[in-house]
Write a structure and sequence with these properties.
It is a single chain. This protein starts with a strand and ends with a helix. It has a single domain, classed as P-loop containing nucleotide triphosphate hydrolases (Rossmann fold). The strands form two sheets. The chain has a six-stranded mixed sheet, with helices on both faces. Strands 2-1-4-5 form a four-stranded antiparallel sheet, covered by helices on one side. The longest helix is centred in the last third of the chain and has 18 residues. By secondary structure, it is an alpha/beta fold. Helix 3 packs parallel to helix 6.
Amino acid sequence: MSGDFLTVTDLHAGYGDARVLHGVDLAVGRGEICAILGPNGAGKTTLLRALSGMVRVRGGVRLDGTALAGRPPDALARLGVAHVPEGRGTFTPLTVEENLRLGAFTRRDRDGIEADLERVCAYFPVLRARLGQVAGSLSGGEQQMLAIGRALMLRPRLLLLDEPSLGLAPLVTAELFRIVRTVNEQERTTVVVVEQNAHLALDVAHRAHVLESGRIVLSGSAARLRADEQVARSYLGYRV
């Protein structure tokens, strides 16, 4: 990991007249997993939507030196930004394979797409066994695997994950995070993950930021935040 790959400077965002983010500043290093922690309503989902072009923003967002703010989601996808929203967002009437291929919609390298389909199925063997099955018939955990697999078909430089553990059994959640860590280690994909399970997020992350009321209130290495009295008391349920 070297240098800041994603930089966010004085970022403001919201919906209509309702402001949600109020001058957010943060940085994520190249090849890092960065956890975004905070209570419900803190603006975590809005932050990911701002990074993927889904809400209007004011302020600076740069990915490897390229300005992202103001670009639409399809343009950001072409720059390598993949967003897995809360609730998975799979296309339930389509098959697993059709969902995965949709993840490569910006690409024209047919051979590379076929290779990446095989690569994603290697990460998620359960998807290989269900390629012809409609996505709506999958379990919740399988749909989350499909959503992440579809994002990986983009060959993202920046992967945004919004509450990947939501509604899933602990064993399924642990497997998902194991795969995310493997992708990060093997492909050097930079990951920003919003996660209510702060223990799990800090276990896999290199860096973390705590968001409250639309503002960053704590930042640092995941190890430092795990040992921080305020974080432990507010988000981990114990005292250091």
